[in-house]
From TrEMBL:
This is Peptidase. It holds the Pfam family AstE_AspA_cat. SUPFAM superfamilies: Zn-dependent exopeptidases (SSF53187). Keywords: Hydrolase, Metal-binding, Zinc. It comes from the Bacteria. The keyword Metal-binding applies. Its cofactor is Zn(2+). Gene3D superfamilies: Zn peptidases.
């Protein structure tokens, strides 16, 4: 959709009500299978990891979606806990498959050194529809709080509540896509009754640090590792990436908890959000998945080394 056009749901300048949200939901079509593409891969990991169902989403005629957490089989309470989350936004494919790739190819390297907890696909309804929001037109990644209106966010909150102070490192795997500009930002403006203001899409990988508790050396360690796999996004003419000042090579900062972002859900000393750009002519899907898995490895390695 051309972002200069009116969005096909709602009245410009008027926030959506229940009717508009139902109209929007009716437009969403299942385009891929959570069971075939994600759950089957998780099932294949059961011989090496403990897999638990930490919740289930009931979206009526669209189906029920179990939520899975994968954790180290040799869990020991005295080991540092490393948290990896993916698929908060269902359309951000490498966030899901990068997490699964890390589990399959790299997690064994941390046996006896760290406890790993990975939730590969937090938003399965959105994964199937290649969308940012859940079925209620809520962005889960603005909803990570105790009273969350998003079932996806609430389920993860409950899972992590007893572990919040135990997590040393949390990396949340995301993408920034061309469809952010052509579909999701226009949809957000329409839903909230606000004018759409076009912005650019950065070409390359970048990270989002925490404004309230920045860890610049940690962020740079991840950037340096990922730069060997894919290119790092440069700042725009204003010295910004997606409207935020670039504070270091490939790094911006958000107030994670204030915005209700997933990366702020624990008290981890080291936390970051990855942003891969899958629409770049310089990146392939396999490269994007490897960039995510590399970011996870670099984040864990740094957290282990620094304590």
């Amino acid at each position: 959709m051309n972002p200069s056009w009116p969005y096909p749901v709602g009245t410009p300048g008027t926030p959506w009500g229940a009717a508009e949200k139902l109209q929007w939901r009716a437009l969403q079509r299942k385009q891929r299978s959570y069971t075939e593409e994600v759950v089957s891969v998780i099932d294949g990991l059961r011989t090496r990891f403990d897999v638990a169902t930490y919740g289930e989403l009931d979206y009526g005629p669209d189906g029920r979606y179990p939520l899975f957490a994968v954790r180290s089989r040799s869990w020991r309470d005295e080991l540092p806990l490393m948290l990896v989350t993916g698929g908060v936004h269902g359309y951000e494919t490498s966030g899901v498959h990068g997490a699964l790739l890390f589990l399959d190819q790299h997690a064994a390297d941390y046996e006896g050194r760290a406890n790993l907890l990975v939730t590969p696909c937090i938003s399965p309804w959105a994964y199937e529809r290649i969308h940012r929001w859940n079925a209620d037109a809520i962005d889960p990644n603005r909803s990570f709080r105790a009273d969350s209106p998003a079932g996806e966010s609430a389920a993860l909150w409950r899972l992590l509540e007893p572990l919040r102070d135990s997590v040393r490192m949390h990396i949340d795997l995301h993408e920034t896509t061309d469809s952010d500009e052509t579909e999701f930002r226009p949809a957000l403006s329409a839903r909230d009754g606000k004018p759409f203001e076009p912005d650019g899409i950065p070409d390359g990988f970048y990270l989002v640090d925490d404004t309230e508790a920045p860890q610049p050396a940690f962020q740079q360690a991840v950037i340096e590792a990922v730069a060997k796999v894919t290119h790092i996004a440069p700042p725009d003419a204003k010295g910004q990436i997606i409207g935020s000042p670039v504070v270091a090579h490939g790094v911006i900062r958000y107030p994670l908890r204030q915005l209700g972002l997933c990366a702020g859900i624990t008290n981890a000393r080291y936390r970051t959000t990855t942003e891969v750009y899958p629409d770049s002519p310089r990146a392939t899907p396999e490269q994007c998945n490897r960039a995510q898995a590399t970011a996870v490895r670099a984040a864990i390695d740094y957290a282990l080394a620094q304590g």
